[in-house]
Amino acid sequence: MIGERLKRARAAAGLSMKALADQVGVSAPMIKKYESNASMPSSGVLIKLARAVDVRSEYFFRPNRAELTGVEYRKRASTGKKELKRIEADVLDQAERWYELRDLWPNFPLASFSQPSGLPQIESLDDIEQVSAKLRKLWKLGLNPLPDLIDLLESKGILVIVTDSEHADKFDGLQATVQGQPIIVVSNAWPGCRQRFTLGHELGHLILHNQLPAEMDEEKACNRFASSFLMPSESLIGQLGAKRRHIDWQELLLLKLEYGLSMSASLYRCRSLGIVSEALWDRLWRDFSKRGWRKAEPGDDSYPKETTQLFNQLVYHAVAEDIISESKGAELLKMPVAAFQRSRRLEDW
Predict the structure, then answer these.
(1) For residue 11, which of 85, 170, 244, 259 is within the disulfide window of CB 3.0 to 4.6 Å?
(2) DSSP letter at 142?
């Protein structure tokens, strides 16, 4: 029955029952009947519904394989339920296509996430430095910048979904679980540094789960984890020195372009590591705020956004190996079959 899928797709499209009914040419009560499975639309109406909510007709008959559990938002106070539903609907659609592809694949080449063992015990925020350093060692990452953070997380069995939702500024991060696999959601509308800090922060929630003292603020702990994981203390001290009387803004901008950590996060990091004194921190932060950089920093458009091509690659892989048909590949990528065939032959390049 298509009811739940229609309801979800309508939420993702931001349409009321009346707005959808007007586009399709039926009444709002009829849309309600469709969504409650009290009535089944004709094939002609179904096509109109698909066009109105921007999905393929096959979407309505896709088995329900994904359910978000343990959803944790870092959202703004002004975020409404309707906006969150639109974000979740997009995430569910992408997750369902992932798991449909996985179920069609005999030996799906995607690792399962496992909690790292042997991490240091945490008693203070400073101990998180040792946790992130240990994780980098376990994952054999060294001390260099991490240029493709999504690729790294996907290789560790963490599914990363990049949403194109127009309500990107209504939330700062989303973490959930689907069929036991952790999912982190970021927005394609964010600057690359914001995406990366969110990915690091949500990774922190996974790594630090049940590891923090009861009195410790988990959000602050995850912020510390994100900054230390993206920019190890040894690397930052090697770049700036252990103690500074002053720091030039250009230095922080160059660090941003190298490590993908915002200037403000780097400045906080300098404070946490004692590179700058509280008095210098206060002067720099007041100047930073006075320049209006708390809303938009220099270099926000210079550091590339994080992207993922893994799902697309696996779809083309599956078609090439005859694991799935071209029509199924086109459906999973939400493309017309003819366009999918052209893309396989690179005819549009």
Answers:
(1) 85
(2) T
**Residue 233 DSSP class:** H
**Cα torsion 58, 63, 66, 67: sign:** positive
Q: What are residue 163's phi and psi, to 5 degrees?
A: -95, 145
pTM of the model: 0.82
CA angle, 324 as apex, 323 and 327 as ends, to 5°? Answer: 160
- Domain positions in the chain are 1-61, 127-290, 310-344
Q: Running DSSP on this structure, what letter comes out for residue 113?
A: P
CATH (one of 3.40.50.10490, 1.10.260.40, 3.20.20.140, 1.10.8.640) for 1-61: 1.10.260.40
Angle 264-268-269 (CA atoms, 0-180°, nearest 5)?
A: 115
Residue 59 exposed, middle or buried by CB count within 10 Å (0-12, 13-18, 19+): buried
Confidence of residue 85 (pLDDT cuts 50, 70, 90): confident
Q: How much is the pLDDT for 167?
A: 62
Distance of alpha carbon 44 from the chain centroid: 36
309-322 per-residue burial string, b: 16 or more CB within 10 A, e: under 16: ebbeebbeebbeee
Of residues 170, 193, 150, the one with CA closest to residue 311: 150
| pLDDT at 226 (0 to 100) | 97
CB 12 within 8 A of CB 89: yes
d(CA 154, CA 116): 15
The secondary structure of residue 8, as a DSSP letter, is: H
Of 33-37, 276-280, 282-286, the one with minimum mean pLDDT is: 33-37
Give the sign of the dihedral formed by CA 15, CA 18, CA 19, CA 21: positive
The tokens describing 177, both together, are: 């679980």
Instruction: Provide the 10 A C-beta neighbour count for residue 340.
Output: 21
Considering only the C-alpha atoms of the chain, give the largest distance between any 2 of them, rounded to a whole number of Å: 74
Instruction: Using pLDDT thresholds of 50, 70 and 90, give the confidence band for residue 92.
Output: confident
- Residue 281 falls in which region: left (phi positive, over 0), alpha (psi -120 to 50) or beta: alpha
